Amino acid sequence: MNKRQKTLKKLAGQKVLFFMIIPCMIYTFIFSYYPLSGWIMAFQNYKPAKGYSGSTFVGMDQFMFLFKDVEFWRSVRNTLAMSLLNLVFSFVFAIVFALLLNEIKSLGLKRITQTVSYLPHFLSWIIVCSLVSNMLSTNDGMINNFLMGIGLIDKPVLWLGEQKYFWWVTTFSNVWKETGWNSIIYIAAISGIDQALYEAAELDGASRFQKMWHVTLPGIKSTIVVLLIMNLGWVLNASFEVPYILGSGLLQDVSQTIDIFVLKYGMSIGNYSLATAAGIFKSVISLALVFGTNAIANKLGESSLM
Amino acid sequence: MKMKKLCAILMACGMVLSLAACGGSGKDTQPTQGAAQNEAEAEDTKEADDSKDQQAAEGAEDAAGEEAGESAGDAQAAGASDENIYGGLVPMEDADDPITYTFFVRDPGTVPADNNPVIQKITELTGVTIKFEFLVGDLDQKLGVMIAGGDYPDLIFAGDAGTKLRDAGAFIPLEEEIPKYPNLNAMYGDVLKYLTQADGHVYDMEIYGTFQNDVTEVAPPFECGIGFYIQKAVLEEAGYPEIKTLDDYFKIIEEYKEKYPEIDGVKTTGFEILADGWRNWALLNPVQNLLGAGNDGAMFVDQNTFESSFFQNGDDAHAFYLKLNEEYQKGIIEAETFTQNYDQYISKITTGAVLGFYDQNWNFQSAQDLLKNDGKYERTYVAVPIANPGVQDAYLDKSNGIPSGTNGVGISINCENPERLLRFFDWLLQREVQDYLQWGEEGTDWVRSADGGKELTPERRAIWYDTAKKRDETGFTLWNYCPKWQGLYTSDGMPCGTGESPDEFLASQSDYDKGFLNGYGIKYPAELMSDPVLRAPYYPVWALPLEDGSPAAVANTKITDVTMKFYPRLILAKDEAEYESIWADFLKEFNAIDLDALKTEIDRQIAEKMAK
Predict the structure, then answer these.
(1) Which end of chain B has the lower number of beta carbons within 10 A, N or C?
(2) pTM for this structure?
(3) Which domain holds residue B258?
(4) Count of CB contacts below 8 A, A vs B?
(5) Residue range B276-289: average pLDDT?
């Protein structure tokens, strides 16, 4: 009794805060929860002309179509593989880049490097992909010319025609484009580390590398964990442009992602129900990934998201 | 002080520029004024106004007559005998009452300039402004969004993707409307049954092709629109041989490549195969042509029984891709051809160092235009009649006069005044207006040739073959996407448009091309091919609509997927053993597709169209 009264009193005291949050709640409801009612079409044979009420219910047929198709599972595999490679490499590169940048003493040089490094983020994928495909070309492409020049290979490699290279091509295109941008947040976190810690480490006789390892990295650990959890939620969404633009029939087995599959078999032939079913599937997996990572982070005693 | 000076200079520049702009637009409008004067033949404006009033009265009477129940047959007779119910380039009765219609077109493109003199003139004479919106991005997505929001423009040309819109009830039925308008009726009256959809209504006014009617007939082709293309220089070098089979074709390419490993400093490429997204026919389609079919699509149709079958997994496909594999081993085909996108393909052709490819004319037109602009006429291409030994090639279509039923303009349910729009289309279909849109004015834009035909003046030709100028200075865009006459006018055999005029075709040929045609002793490049084949009413398969999300549609997508995946691998196989093992894998995946679903649906639709 007493406890409840206490809670109520606390709530009353925060009345103003609740009022302030109402617009956000409404916004979230309208744009994030209300559209979920459209999920109903995943269980229908939805026809735009007939609407939700007029379309026939088909139960789990759309899901069965997906789950029975070898191509779909291949797409799931490709999506996961490319996204995880992307995730790991963009994390490692961004963190290492931020650490190294932090070690540069000349402020001017540091700023220039930082600015130059995040400029590619503002290029569209279309442009980046044509740069990549020109660089990897067998006809006077830079990479092949270089490798042949130093004698590593004796005839041009068809980088964009062989399945084994494709995931790495997408990964490194992504690293090239996003490293600078991703590192911004770490650089901000690093600048928030108490300088006294560095001084103390110096007194203890730590080398530069030891300071990076024992002071800087632990200092940004919580940032890394939070970003990792948040990014995992996007793992299944983050692979459309590059595989779509650089992919070709030759590479289909490794380049077709869930999104491309949905575009072909859902949107292009007007099967919106299938597209929705695949969307639900993706959401479920993404949620599982986020909660899973969150739980692991909790277990390891790290600050978690929820 | 300095600031002030700078301001003054800037303002001065601005004034000069705006003056220049005025001057420019003034010049642009001049021809229009000239046109008005010519057509009106010294009629002064007052008289024109009078006649307009008169016309308005007549129009009202006409409308009343129709309402009173004038039979469709009468209207048709009137249309056939008197094409000029509106009197040529004479204003419509409600030209003072401006109205704007929005028009979505499924093609990527650019809207004609606001000061396009021809379109301005049409607006002045009719009061109608057509606001074009061209496709940006993905068509299916665009239509999906339109349907979801019910947000339709007044007019939509969606091509074969229009099925979605019809299913969504986006169009108004036209079967009762068309017979009320003499010119529209003259165009579509005889083919209405082919335009009728499964629900018994007509929603589209087909805009491509010559249909069965009394006003026009099919024009003979000058150039072949599809096939195995080869650089003219290669044929010239080989002494203008007759090329009938794949072996002949690749043999002269090999010889030429050996002799000229570089062309203008660029490494020679023997044969290109474009396989980029939906532009995949170079990889998927040639086998049906080798079998003696036209450009049917994913199925081969027996022209006697009209039963469809798959050519993708047959012996002919096996042999064709094996031949390409052999050419890959010889270095005629490069592996990179399968990784390049459309832009890279076009820029490669533009170098003039590509000897051959399978394609459709419009797809590489831009590259060919650039080659012509550079004066490299010997590097432009011509199609040769390649088929399996003993099979007659059938690349050239002789139109059967039957509309596809899917390539048309529809009026949406959001259109507020469809009656006036149809009347506008009817007005546009007058021969004078059609001529004005495509040919321009006699004397300044086109002249009679020595034998009485029509050809463009050199100035007009420079405009007509320049995409941007053609769009901004002629009525091409308006003509192209509205119902239009195509072919030859039956009354006097005159060409409807520039593309159908033999005199214009011959006059626009370069000296090199004349020499080339002379070498073969032919008048037009299309004469290299066998005679045009009269197509059956169902033709082509690719225009038959598949229901959204149906098993047939899924099978169709799967076929594209599997063939796109395996054919490049077959061509790039290391040796014959590897080729055979990939072929076995291919058959396994291909035959696992629900092929019957597609075949049954296509057979059903063919039978239905053949029965009409």
Answers:
(1) N
(2) 0.80
(3) 226-395+521-611
(4) 94
(5) 92
